[in-house]
Write a structure and sequence with these properties.
This protein is an alpha/beta fold. Helices cover 26% and strands 24% of the residues. The strands form three sheets. It has a six-stranded mixed sheet, with helices on both faces. The protein has a five-stranded mixed barrel with strand order 1-2-3-5-4. Strands 6-7 form a two-stranded antiparallel sheet. α1 packs across α8. The chain is globular and about 70 Å long. The structure holds guanosine-5'-diphosphate and zinc ion (ZN). Zinc ion is lined by residues 266, 271, 273, 276, 279-281.
């Protein structure tokens, strides 16, 4: 009998997986019969998975023989295979959304879409406002406004600068001993922040390589970086968000914290909070208790969902 080891999948490149066992990376393949399981997904094993493997002595490589249950996972709809999804990453403890007020400006619909996805996947979120060294008075006011909107509905935030090393210690503490997925538009400073948190890592910044690749390579692989200070960062290059699966219009509002709270108080139990009389959500918006930008995001997501159904996507 071969000894069975347990490890975490750090990277996947086609049919090979880098598995971290203690402090070693073992190159592993997946046992053949794995592929027949879980037909809903295009990949049998994903970055973040905990797996059991055996060592094939003659080759000095490993063979993955068992997948442990996933605590959670994020998916992207497969581009080629319509009804199957690609598991981007699994076993996430936290999602950090990197936001910038300018250079580039992060729009709130984008933030809210990520928040809905994270809630659907059961992943806690921390907002990280980067590039605070750049902002003028007006942009600082905008930052404060966003902080107020999101803090009020239960999302914590932190202000940092990757290049000026502002609040990086605090960020390191937030990431400590967790497996965190880092999300945000390209150019907001994701790579710069990872490098700032851990000087041993040297991810390419300024996106020269990534911009270049955009559109040409449709397949992007997630990768996990181990932090010296404790914890893991899951990076999903080129992926702006993650797919929403099985999220029907009828329950979209339940993924908006502030609407969920009012859900049972609307006159109609199946209120869509768009036109119904006796809608507490609409009332709360009029009173300024729910932010208009959040409501606009809700409406645009509703609309998009309806359209994609109409198109049969
Ligand atoms: P990514 O695409 O999200 O990984 O972004 P990068 O880390 O590649 O950063 C994009 C650009 O923003 C680079 O030119 C960085 O030097 C710059 N940048 C990143 N963080 C900061 C910051 O806190 N302040 C300023 N002024 N520039 C930053
Ligand atoms: Zn309502």
């Amino acid at each position: 009998m071969s000894t069975i080891y347990t490890g975490r999948v750090m990277k996947s490149t086609g049919s090979w997986y880098d598995v971290l066992h203690e402090s070693n990376i073992v190159k592993c393949k997946v046992r053949g019969n794995f592929r027949t399981k879980g037909k809903m997904y295009t990949n049998p094993v994903a970055v973040g998975d905990k797996v059991d493997f055996i060592i094939k002595k003659e080759e000095n490589t490993g063979l993955i023989v068992k997948l442990h249950d996933r605590k959670n996972y994020i998916v992207r709809k497969s581009i080629n295979l319509r009804h199957r999804a690609h598991i981007l990453a699994s076993n996430l403890d936290l999602a950090i959304i990197i936001i910038t007020i300018v250079k580039p400006k992060t729009n709130t619909v984008f933030i809210d879409r990520l928040l809905v996805s994270a809630k659907a996947y059961n992943i806690p979120v921390q907002l990280v406002f980067n590039k605070i060294d750049l902002y003028n008075e007006q942009e600082m006011a905008k930052l404060t406004e966003l902080e107020n909107i999101y803090n009020k509905i239960g999302y914590p935030s932190i202000r940092v600068s990757a290049t000026e090393q502002i609040n990086i210690d605090a960020l390191r503490l937030i990431l400590k001993d967790k497996n965190t997925v880092i999300l945000g538009n390209s150019g907001v400073g994701k790579s710069s922040l990872i490098n700032a948190v851990d000087e041993n890592l040297s991810l390419k910044t300024a996106d020269i390589s990534r911009y270049h690749n955009k559109g040409r390579h449709t397949t992007t692989y997630a990768e996990i970086f181990q932090l010296q200070s404790g914890g893991f960062i899951t990076d999903t290059p080129g992926i702006k968000g993650f797919g929403l699966v099985n999220l029907e219009n009828e329950n979209l509002a339940t993924y908006f914290n502030e609407m969920l709270e009012l859900q049972n108080q609307c006159k109609y139990y199946n209120c869509t909070h768009t036109h119904e009389p006796g809608c507490k959500v609409i009332e709360a918006i009029k009173l300024g208790e729910i932010s208009e930008s959040r409501y606009n995001s809700y409406l645009s997501m509703l609309e998009e969902d309806t359209q994609s159904k109409y198109r049969g996507v």
